[in-house]
Structure formats: C-alpha cells, structure tokens
Amino acid sequence: MTTKFVRIFILLLLATGVSFPQFASAMAEVTSFSQSSGTVAFQGNSVPGYVTFELKTSEPTRGYILAVGNGIQTKINLSTMDYKTVHKMDWVPWDDTKKIPLPAGEYQLKAYMTDQGYNQISGYPLGKLTVVSETSPKPLFDQVAINPAVFAPKYGGASTVQIPFNLNRPAEVQLSIWQNGSEIYAGSKMKLLPGSHSVSWNGTDKAGRIVADGNYDVHFKYIETAYNYPATTQSAQKAGAVTVKDGDYNIPQWRLKEVVKDAVFTSDVISPDGDGVNDTVTGQFTLAEPAKVSIYIANAAGAHMKNLVTEQPFQAGTHTFVWDGTDFMGSKAVNGNYFVKVMVIEGANAGYISFADSVRFEGGYEFKALQPEKRVRVIAETAKLSVYPMDQGYTAVKGDTFPLMSETIENGKYQVLVKEGVSGTINVNDVELVVETTVPTVPNTMEYTVVSGDTLWKIAAKFNTTISEIVALNNLDPNKYLYIGQKLQVPATVSPEPTPQPVIHTVQTGDTLWKIAQKYGKTIDAIVKANNLDPAKYLYIGQKITIPSSTTTPEPPLVQPVIHTVVSGDTLWKISVKYGTTIDAIVKANNLDPAKYLYIGQKITILR
Q1: Pairing of strands 39-41, 120-132
Q2: What torsion do the CA atoms of 199, 205, 209, 214 make, to the nearest 10 degrees?
Q3: Residue 526, Cβ neighbours under 10 Å: how many?
Q4: Which stretches does DSSP call E strand in 29-170?
Q5: What is the pLDDT of residues 307-335, one digit of tens each?
Q6: pLDDT score, position 442
Q7: pLDDT score for 33
Q8: Which of the residue ranges 102-106, 144-148, 465-469 would you say has the lowest mean pLDDT?
C-alpha cells in the first residue's frame, strides 16, 4: 500500500511539472549589473544629473533596485509589469516618499526581483552610488540657437526657422510658440535622450495658417522621464524669441492670380430706384481651377459693402453673381464706385484679390467734403482709420491728405472723406491741419496741381526748372510733403501748338453718319467731305471713317426759310446740295432722324 502511494505521488508531481512549467524551471539569478556613473547629483553639472542602470537576469523577472543610506531607502523601479531579462533605467536621485531630491551621501544598491515562478531575488547586493549636492545646477536645455532670428514664412512652407538645442537629461519635449500670453503653435511631443537635437517651425499657427508679422516667444514644454513616476503635467522653459517679418499671412497675390483669372460687372451703373432699370447689377468671376471662394462688393477704400457668396466651392469656369445695391445691413449703398473682391480659401489659409472693373452707384446718399475745402495731412508714419461701412480698418501713410467733412472733433477724431463714397474717422494726433497759402501769380508762371507720386524734384524736371525756384515761387518748406490737389506756381513753358490729328472711327452695328457726327461733335457734311462719301449709300461694319479735326465753318446768316416738298428719289444729301445748305442744318431745322427714310410729300424747311 505504501509503495503504491509513493508511485501515485511521483506521477502527480511529474504531471504538475508538465502542466505548470514554471514550477519546474530554474530559479532566476542576476547575471550582470552596470551603472553609467558612481556619482550623481540632482540636476548635476560637474557630475552627471542622472544615472543609467542596466541589470540582467537569467530568467525573465520584474522588480526594483532599493537605494539604502543615510537612514533613507528609496525604490528605483526597473519593471513593475512586464517580465524581462534585461532591465535598463535612467534615474535622477529623487526621494519619491518625501518628493525631494535625494540627500547627499553614499547609498547601497540592492536588487529585489521576482520571476514568473514567483521565485524571488531579495536584497541582492549590486554595489553603491554616491549622491552629491550640486552648487550650480544645469538646466534641462542649453546651447539653444534660433536661426534665423528674423524670417519670412512663405506660402507652402518653403521657409522655416531652425532651433538646435542640447538636452541634459532624458525628457519628453514639445516645441511651443507664444505671443501676448497665448500659445499659438504646439509641435509634436518627442521622447528624447540627452544630447544634441533640433526642431523647426514653419511660421504657422495651430490651424496651419501662416501667422501675422510680429515677435514670438519660443518655449520648450517638457516632462523629465528619469523618475520612477514622471510628472503628468508639462513644465516650460523659454528658449528665446523669433521675429516674423514679411510673411505670407494671406495667400500671396501670385497664387490668387493663378486661381482667379478675372471678375467684372456686366453693366456700368446701378441705381435701385424701383423703376426696373439698373435696379440690380450682375457680375461674373472666372476660376482657372476648382476653388472655395467668397465674393464681396467693396468700396473705393477696399472696405466690404456686401458679402454675396460665403466660402462656397466652385468648379473651374465662369460664374455669376447679382448685387442689389445694399450693404450688410440691407440699407442702400452710398453714391460712388464699387468693385469685386474675391477671397480664396485653401485649407487654413485665405487671401483677397481685387479687380479694377467697377460699377457706379447712383441715386443714393452722397458723402461731401466741407466747402471751401479744408484738409488734414498725416504726420504719423502710419495712421489707422475707421471707415464706412461698419468702421472697417484702413491704413494711411505719412503725407496722405484727406478733406474734412466736419471741423468738429469727436472723441479725439476728425471725420474725413477717405475716398469718393467713403467716410472715415482719424485720430487728431496722427494729422495736422493743412494751411492753404495764397501764392500771388507771378508773370511768366502757370498754375500746376499736384498729383499722386509728385515730388519737388519730379515737378522741377517736368517744367525744366529747379527745386529752389519752385520753393521760392510758392514760399514752400522743402522738408514738408506735398499733398494731392495742392496748387503750385511753376515757370510757364511755351510749347508749339500740336497739330490736330484725325481720329479714325471703325463702323459698328447700328452706326449711321448722323450717330457718328453726334458722337464726335462734327457735321455730317464734314465727315462726308473728309471721306469722299456718298451719303445716300449705306455704311458697312468695319469701314474706317476719318473724323476731321478742323473746326467747322460758321453757318451763313439765315434768310427767309424755304419749304421743300419731298419727291421721288430725294435724299437729305440731294436736298442740301440743291439749296446750298448742309444736312445738319436741315436735320436740326426739321428735328429729323437722319437714319429714317424721307417720304414723298413730306414738307422740309430749308433755312438759307
């Protein structure tokens, strides 16, 4: 019976070994241990600020190293979950219990490991570690450079700023760009080992749009990873600053011109008075490729009057829009010229392109300058105006002048006429009143009106004189800017009377001699004689007609009118020849439409 029991016990033991191999495996042993330094300091400088441990075991294990010394013991976690044969750990001397740097002193290192069979290595001696105090702690980041310090981020990300740095301890690092206390960009998080690294920024914000010109702070956000329990929230260190200048904050014009080929109105005037004529205006824009766009009506200062299309995708081709002559609030626009402004949206980026074609709004309110005119001149380098409608922004530069709409200063601002149909307000501290001086007319001089782009040098060259002479003639201060519309006395230049050149008119559909004569302020006879025409014959489309430049001969004195009765074959030409008069005289005397036929028996008054 006893022998049988022993046999059964042996069989069960063997079966257990087959079913649970860990019970049959060998006990784990430490096969090797190394540490990167025997001396360490918290945030070290003269000595390392962290130490790397590597411990190997014969079987997969997990566990920790216990540092014991100075009446303190603290754990250095190797692997708390996974079983490994090779354990590698970066560690800073930190007391997890008290949450303070480990005090200076000598610490014994002991291993506490468990294998998969729950066999334990308890207090295996690994060696010692000396912790010292650091009098000059080393920061996590140093040797930071920002290159270039001023850069112009370009559309498409072709330009970047490089930020190389040295990392002194293991950490998770993230580039962060700030302006005015707000984070505008955050890069990817990277787990890095100590050493040299580099990150870059292409000048975009979190949405991917190129940022506006200005100054930006460069920060590193980080979490040091050489702790048993790394922080869960990031710390930050300012690394420097970078300036964005001349960046493509908006989609550049070259790109906008690739996308939008043209935008025009199909008529010249809009006058929404309810009579059914020109109450609305139709326009069209042409895209060279599919694009998402918004369409605006803009006034002469570029301010938006009405948003007709909002961020809508269109295919390549020509598309139409209609404007009813109202602003954002549904009120009638002010008299003036209005333009098409197209906003193109590409991802997070957008840009505006305007076109020269305009429509004239008539029949509405009109902004008027004071009479007699009084002006202000901008003395600041730049001046910000609030303009119609809805106080939109407009920037003026030094030397710009504006007519006053009122001499009253309200809230420290003048009301000015910015452009035709555009009123605005400007800070009184940014301008000076223009004092008009009456310059007496000097013999052999003439009056010249200053236009955009004029300088004393240009005007002197134009009239073959000197700056000094113009200054003396007009009692000018040569250090002050000229302004558009300013009246100047300049030396008179005698030019030969130019020889009048004839104008060539190409006949269009619907043209008649009468219409052409009216268009150019000439007589039918003068056109007939200049071109040796037979007025009884039709003009043809494309025919070249010379418009004489000579003055018309005065009509002879009138005598008693003659009444001519139209007979078969009569034309205005034949009748004028018969009575020695002109076709124009007959047309005017009888209020005729020369494009219409005469009829037999018609009574024609001839003024002779």
Answers
A1: parallel
A2: -90
A3: 19
A4: 30-35, 39-41, 51-69, 72-91, 94-95, 100-101, 105-115, 120-132, 141-142, 150-151, 161-167
A5: 999 999 999 999 999 999 999 999 999 99
A6: 64
A7: 96
A8: 465-469
CA atoms of 65 and 28, how far apart (whole Å): 16
C-alpha to C-alpha distance for 425 and 248, rounded to whole angstroms = 29
Work out whether the CA dihedral 515, 518, 521, 526 comes out positive or negative: positive
| 357-396 pLDDT, tens digit each | 999 999 889 999 998 889 999 999 999 999 999 999 999 9
The answer to whether the CB of 320 falls within 8 A of the CB of 284 is yes
64/110 Cα distance (integer angstroms): 9
CA 204 to chain CA centroid, nearest Å: 13
Do residues 521 and 550 make contact, with C-beta atoms less than 8 angstroms apart?
no
Mean pLDDT of 552-567: 64
72-97 per-position pLDDT tens digit: 999 999 988 899 999 999 999 999 88
DSSP letter at 372?
Answer: S
Provide the 8-state DSSP code for 594: T
Query: Is the confidence at residue 195, as pLDDT, over 50?
Result: yes
Q: Is 58 helix (H, G, I), strand (E, B) or coil?
A: strand
Please name every residue paired with 218 in a beta bridge, in sequence order, or none if there are none. 177, 240
Helix residue spans in 456-582 (DSSP H): 456-462, 467-474, 513-520, 524-531, 572-579
What does the pLDDT look like over 536-551, one tens digit per residue?
Answer: 777 887 788 888 875 4
Show the DSSP H helices in 20-173 as ranges: 21-24
- Distance between CA 50 and CA 32 in Å, rounded? 20
> Which residues, including other chains, have CB under 8 Å from residue 468's CB and lie 6 or more apart?
none
| Whole-number pLDDT of residue 220 | 98
The rounded distance, in Å, linking the Cα atoms of 44 and 50 is 7
Residue 548's pLDDT is what? Answer: 84
Instruction: Give backbone dihedrals phi and psi of 516, rounded to 5 degrees, phi first.
Output: -65, -45
**430 token code pair:** 């940014």
Rounded-to-integer distance, Cα 69 and Cα 91, Å? 17
Output the six-digit token pair for 437. 């001086």
In one-letter notation, the amino acid at residue 133 is: S
Q: Where are the beta strands (DSSP E) in 315-361?
A: 317-323, 336-346, 349-361
Distance CA 508, CA 526 (A): 20
Length of the chain: 608
- What element of type H or E holds 260? strand 260-265
Share of the chain above pLDDT 90, in %: 60
User: What separation in angstroms does the CA of 212 have from each of 45, 181, 215, 344?
Assistant: 40, 16, 9, 18
Q: What confidence tens digit (pLDDT) does each residue in 39-57 have? A: 999 999 999 999 999 999 9
Angle (CA) 423-424-425 rounded to 5° is: 145
